[in-house]
Amino acid sequence: MHGVRLLTVCVPVALAGLVLTACTPATTTAIQPSAPPTAVTTASTTPSASTTPSASPPPNLPATKDLRLQSFKTIPSSSKIGTLSPKSIVASGDGVVMAQNMIYNHTVTVFNSDGEWITTIPDTVKLADFGITGYPEGTVKGGPVELAFSPDKKKAYTSNYSMYGPGFSHEGHDTCDPSSNIDTSFVYRIDVGTNTIDQVIPVGKVPKYVATTPDGKYVLVTNWCSYNLDVIDVATHKVVKELEVGAYPRGIAISSDSVTAYVAIMGSTQIKVVNLGSFEVTSFRGVGSGPRHIVISPDGDYLYVTLNAEGRVAKIDAHTGEVIKKVATGSAPRSMDISADGESLYVVNFESSTVSKVTTDDMNEVQELRTAYHPIGITYDRKTGRVWVACYSGEIEIFDDNPPHAAA
Questions:
Q1: Number of domains in the chain
Q2: Would residue 14 count as lying in a domain?
Q3: SS (H, E, C) 297-319
Q4: What pTM did the predictor assign?
Q5: Looking at the predicted structure, is the pLDDT value of residue 7 above 60?
Q6: What are the pLDDT digits (tens) for 175-219?
Q7: CB 3.0–4.6 Å: which of 143, 375, 393, 402 could bond 385 by disulfide?
Q8: In which domain, by residue range, is 247 found?
Q9: What are the E-state strand segments in 86-213?
């Protein structure tokens, strides 16, 4: 266990981070990385009344609100596994965990739910083998960013920040707009049974987040530099809609009935609300600065959004867009996941090099633990109750949120 101390003050920190000027001109200043802090644990002394109904936890897993994270395992790069540089990590909930190693390692690393290495998938393909024409012959590589499993867990879709090889000479960049001279890219579909790429789908410029609708009909992709949302029809594996959503779209959450998608627009203070029947796009405005990642409560009533530019996490009414409460976590909260019972959020704080646990009913940060340098991705494994953290330093850390609560 890491050492812990109590926090007595929790102050929101305004950050530029990766929030870039676009819709509203502004001046941003890059924040220099700091050394990882010591581990901290926080507890609220004035909890508020519960406002979030909880779904029943899955079999054999206790309710998460009163549990606390404990270190379970650290996975470093090795000659067997290869080099880890994970941008994101995603658990299927069915025994498979995939880490996307961007950009120049060109791999997806596959583990089982106990953290044992299964295989490493190279992102090298011949586009012509997948019916993609108009490019020179030869192999190309991608740069995996994010991944989403299909509802039946048999397929996984990963976005590629940029492509490299014959026909590609304009690499992606985080500062861009639709007129930028940047190559369009692709989403790969991975067969989970064989751990091979079996589909390549053209999308926009610098695709980032990927999400699948629970009904299995669509795959949604946010294109960072195209300022749009691609809707891929799973049956035809083609983009059927390109929806303009604004500067620097990032995270996506989808309602359980597959009717509504919520898209975080990181270059703004908005969340776009997409009707997946009519493809009408509306907005929740003024949710906070730099919304990056979104998760949705099991009952569909609440959204939880990391606000990278203000160092806080917001709880939002999914029906009205009203901001109910915000909580400060560490510096530059990036990715986040929610427990299966909806009682807990797990947030990585990029500049603080910490992971936070937040209870959803009162939006209190109840725990903050040190991680390896620059944690960027996180996933909650619904099979084991464990939390996986992907760090740019080249490590994956696994925390157990399943054992009985032990006093810090």
A1: 1
A2: no
A3: CCCCCEEEEEECCCCEEEEEECC
A4: 0.86
A5: no
A6: 999 999 999 999 999 999 999 999 999 999 999 999 999 999 999
A7: 402
A8: 70-400
A9: 86-91, 96-101, 107-112, 117-122, 144-149, 155-160, 184-191, 196-205, 207-212
